[in-house]
Amino acid sequence: MATKVGMEVSLAAAEAVKQANVDVVAAYPITPQTHIVEHLAELVNNGELDAEFIPVESEHSAMSVCTGSSAAGARSFTCTSSQGLALMNEIVFITASLRLPIVMLLANRTLSGPLSIWNDHSDVMSIRDCGWIQVFVENGQEVYDHVFIGYRVAEDRNCLLPFMVNLDGFILTHVIEPLEFLDQEIIDRYLPPYRPLYSLHPNHPVTMGAFSTPALYTETKKAQDEAIREAMPYILKGWQEFGDLTGRYYHPIEHYKTEGAKVILVTQGSLGETASIAIDSLREKGETVGLVKIRLWRPFPVHEFREAVKGAELVVVMDRAISYGASAGPLAMEIRSALYAEEERPRVVNWIAGLAGRDLSPEDFLQMIHQAKERSDEGYEIYGVRG
Amino acid sequence: MAKPEHEITWKELNVGCVIDEPGNAASYRTGDWRSQRPIYTKDRCIQCGTCYVFCPDMAIKIIQEGYVEHDLYYCKGCGICAEECPTGAIAMVDEEE
User: Fold this and answer.
1) What's the pTM value of the predicted model, to 2 decimals?
2) Hey, do A4-245 and A253-382 end up sharing a CATH topology, with the first three levels equal?
């Protein structure tokens, strides 16, 4: 097994894209994703990665290029952030409906306005319903690993869906971490060459992206919805086989000290590591508190989530985005909905916290858990807001 | 298309709704869109072919001796042929009539 190397996570992500042997990279630099695309440009320029690097003029073009190249049978990669995602929005939905297995790293950053470059999840939540497989990762190793897992799952003939990896901007992208790089031989065993089901080729003409009439549109959407639901076992298989090769196993819902927990905190993304410190200190005091981390966001693992919080009396959900005027944050809405049909369900208290780079310490998580015990399980509150 | 589209179930769609049967737009009956249809008076026709040139849907066929025929499977009833005809050999009438 390979040794650990200290590297900035963005550069490691680009190295993973190289090792995944992509054919096309089309991306437009935007903070905090910039180092990923810069390093990929270097890798292509110095001949380490034999791929077409297409320096597009916008993110709308980046996703358009990847959609075209993927349709032509090329393994295609892009990455973006915040406003970049907003600009490519139109094409993101089309890519999923065309069932094209693009992998995108989304370096999560808040959406303007006010203008801000810092991290929260308002960008990904704005395209929650785009039809991509969406996962959240917690550290640099998980970013590196999920490039391979992403292509493996996306290109599985049983899935054929684009795959989005959410990594917190700056908190992950700009941090140097000790990372274990995989030998190319292991990656090649895990990730076979992409063999598209359909591709654009003059010898076998097909139409992609055709017009649909009202007589057929409902059926096209049902087929797309079934596709992402039926992808679940193949996502699990992708994680399982990656674990068998590397010893690093991933799950749709990650548990931390949830055995017998009466109170469970729910997080997404890198703040799970900070939250786990708070859980440790409460466990040391004898409190039955645990942590559940949502790795798989779409398709949402309803069954696994229900199992994860079984026996809990209070579930404290931390959202990192606001759904203005809604009943709760996007994650809490999902969770309340997933638990509604349960006969015995816990109270669900929702905090919105950590917006646009506002730091959260283990002490803040202790406060959120503590205050949640006194709070109503209706609606939501913004943690730490002044006034 | 083997089946009319209103009979196709979601399970029968190709992955990504790819159409792998080239040219199947030919089976799409755009004539269904028509609210007016062209009436052709052969006696007035001077076989100039102007209507054939202007028809945006190639729904006018040249038949014997340069006379024309409308293909009502595709004709959307736009009326351009009637507008352009120099002798008034084509008139548009409402479909109900």
Assistant:
1) 0.92
2) yes
Asked if the C-beta of B64 comes within 8 angstroms of chain A's C-beta atoms, the answer is: no
Q: Among A198, A204, A213, A218, which would you mutate to test the B interface (most chain B Cβ atoms within 10 Å of its Cβ)?
A: A198
CA distances in angstroms from A59 to A81, A143, B49, listed in the order given: 10, 21, 49
The whole-number pLDDT of residue B4 equals: 80
**With contacts defined as CB-CB under 8 Å, which chain B residues touch A220?**
10, 13, 17
Q: What is the CATH number of domain A253-382?
A: 3.40.50.920
Q: HSE on the CB side for A125, CA within 13 Å?
A: 23
Q: Which residue of A has its CA nearest to B16?
A: A98
CB contact under 8 A, A210 and B17: yes
Across the interface, do A223 and B18 touch by the CB < 8 Å criterion? no
Determine the topology of domain A4-245 in CATH: Rossmann fold (3.40.50)
Locate the chain A residue with the closest alpha carbon to B21.
Answer: A206
Number of structural domains (chain B) is 1
Q: Which residue has the tokens 């065309």?
A: A98
Using pLDDT thresholds of 50, 70 and 90, give the confidence band for residue A273.
very high
Give which of A76, A105, A48 is closest to A194, Cα–Cα: A76
